[in-house]
Structure formats: C-alpha cells, structure tokens
Amino acid sequence: MPANSWLSEYAAFHRAHRHDAHARFVMFSCHEKMSGAGSVCGGHGNRFRQIVWTLRVAAGARRVLLVDWASPERLEDYLEPAADIDWRLTKAERALLAAPNHSHVYRMNWPNVTGLPPDTKYLRVTAGCHDAGPCYNCSDLVVNFGLAYRYLFRPTTAFHRTLHQRRLDLFGSSTSAEHVRYNSMHVRMGDSAEGSQMRSNFNSPIRDVRSTLLEAAIGIWCVASATPSKHPLFVATDNAALKEALAARDPALINASGLLGRDAFRRVVVTGCVDCMVNAVQKHNFSAEGVAAIFVDAGLLAGGADFAFMGKGSNYATWVKGWRHADLSGADDRPSFSFPSSLHLAPSASRQAARHACTSWLEKEVARPPAPHLLRNVTAWE
Predict the structure, then answer these.
(1) Main-chain dihedrals φ then ψ at residue 309, nearest 5 degrees
(2) Which of 22, 96, 245, 308 could bond to 185 as cystine, CB 3.0-4.6 Å?
C-alpha cells in the first residue's frame, strides 16, 4: 500500500465502526494505578510515539483506535480529535474500563505483538513497549510521525486561546500584518545531568546525561546569536538549573559567563515553573501548573519560525516536530535543526573555540534545505 494512503481508508472504517456494538478496540492507556508489565506511561513525547504506533496496530488489526490518557490529567483538556478519528472515550466506556478485571478488557499488552491479537473487546497498549517495533499486519502501513500526529490531534479551542495569550504575554503584539516572530529551542540535558530536578522510581539509578550545563549554554548562545536581533529565542528545557539561569538571563548562575559573556542570554525567553519539574515517565503527582507547562512549552516551541533541538533521542522534540508538521498533504517546510549534544570542548575551552563550534554547525545547517526562515550564518558576533 502506498505510504500514507491508508489513513483516509482507516478514517472511513473508524467512522463506520466507532459505535458499532460488535466493534473491537485498541487503546493507548495511561492511568495512575496501572500495574504489572507494561504499566509505565512514559514521557509525553514517548506517549505520542506510542499512540502513532497504536494507530498502525488499529488499522492492521481492523480495530477502532481509542486514546485513554487519564494521568496526570486527561489529554482532552489540551488536545482534541483533529478530524475524522474520534479517539475519545465515552462516559460509559470510562466506567467500564475503571472496573477491576472486567472480562471485556485485556489489561496488559498482548504477549506477541506481531501475532494475531487476543479476541478481547478492549485491547490495552501502554507507552514504551513497542513504539518503534513491528506490529501485527501493519508492515505496509507506513506513516510519517508528523503527518500521523496532525491526523489525530489539534489544540482544543480553550488551549489554543491559552497559547495565544501566552505568546502575547511573552512576545507582545505587532502592528504589522505579521505576528511577532520568534525562534524556538528545546534543550534535553537528561534526567541525571547536573542541575536536574528529575527523580526516578526505578530500582537502579538512570544514567541519562546528554549534555553538560556548559554545552547547553553554548548551544543556546549559538542559536540566540544566529537569530536576527529583533526576534527573541524561546527556550524550553528539562533542566532546572539551566532554566533558572535563562529566566534570570544570567550565565553566571551556571558558571558560563566567562566563556560566553554576561549578555549571552539577553534575548532568551522562558516560561513556566522551575521547581515543578518531575519525571513524567514514573510519576503522576504533577501539579496543575506543571502539567500545563509541559503542553504550553510544546505549543510555544511548535510556533517558532525555526526550531532547534539539543539532546540525543528526545521524544519531546519529536512531539514538537510533529506538532509543527505543515499540513495533512505531507508537505513540511518548517525547518527544524539539531544542535549536537556533545561539543567535545575542554572545561578550559576559549570563547574562540565555542564560536568555532557554533559557526561550523550553522554553516552545515543553513546549507541544507529547507532554508531557515530566521536563522542566519553569523558574520558579526553579537
């Protein structure tokens, strides 16, 4: 089957069978009290990757896709079905799924995801299990993540208004026909990086360090310096110490002013709380402010004219790139750029070495299509 052509066919199947009494369902699930194998919800980016995989499972197994995302808040508080795939649970379905050990609900992932699924009415899938792997009867169901994301999700009217207001609060309004434009950058340093507030409930410590504070500071400095002076740079990060320094626009708070200069973060903008960061993979005790910050950050990152991301294997960045996907035709002309996590610079590196790392990256990225909207090669260092 040609890439992506199956999506319209599955939409028709979904509409026809969504409320069929004899339908079979496959659900992405995330609840606070799930237990047993495959019970981890995963981080938010990982959850969306799993949902896209589950879409392929649903089409291959001829089941109706549902998204049962209830922790720490319902997904529908932020996102709604984009068009023809109404993945929301009804009130009756929520009650049925809340009942313990109901015969119609398969509580865990089926043992062999490449084999015929068990004949259970509601088949449950959880995050982090098979999102990059094969699945039953779906090898020909190829789809770009961004296209699948835009096929399934769009901001609710209320959340769209929240994003619009936050953008006005951060960047102001413009008297011209064009909105105030900005670049955006996501920096994933890792749960175990210096300055992280992330904590895990795993039995053994997670070794997750993707960059140092100094490397992250250089990356932000580089992208901010390559953004025209009239445009701000919005930054979202998983690292509390880095975010605190960015909020204060003071690189000295992370001992980076000697290398970068005191004004390195002067056009950087951040939003949301610093002390509410939690490990989304393990914990469900988010504050309302913390949950909102996750979605607001993603929405603001997606709205950047150019989007840079730093942190190998960041599913959050994958989510943002999917959100930025231009339209359902498959076209995607909104540039995203990956800044290297490790710059291999010595602790005593000079400002000249940091600039060289930046300009080398810019020369490579600006040369490849699609051309960036706002990033430019640095000719006069700011």
Answers:
(1) -135, 150
(2) 308
CA pseudo-torsion sign 286, 287, 291, 294: negative
* DSSP secondary structure string for all residues of 1-40: --TTTHHHHHHHHHHHHTT-TT--EEEEEE-TT--STT--
Task: Sort strands 307-310 and 336-339 into parallel, antiparallel or unpaired.
Answer: parallel
CA separation, residue 126 to residues 27, 80, 262, 287 (Å)? 8, 20, 46, 23
Res 31: pLDDT: 78
Could you give the CA distance from residue 34 to residue 149 in angstroms, rounded to a whole number? 25
Cα–Cα distance for residue pair 123/159, rounded to 1 Å: 30
Alpha carbon distance 342, 344 (integer Å): 6
Q: What are phi and psi of 260, to 5 degrees?
A: -105, -20
Give 183's contacts (C-beta < 8 A, 6+ positions apart).
Answer: 223, 227, 231, 232, 233, 234, 304, 305, 306, 307, 308, 374, 375
Ranges of the chain with pLDDT below 50: 1, 37, 175-178, 203-204, 379-382
Distance CA 75, CA 50 (A): 14
Structure tokens that stand for 316 in this block: 């959050």
Are the C-beta atoms of residues 375 and 368 closer than 8 Å to each other? no
pLDDT computed for residue 232 by the predictor: 92
Would you kindly state where each structural domain of the chain is located, as residue ranges? 6-155, 157-367
CA distances from 235 to 170, 200, 223, 246, 249 (A): 12, 24, 10, 8, 12
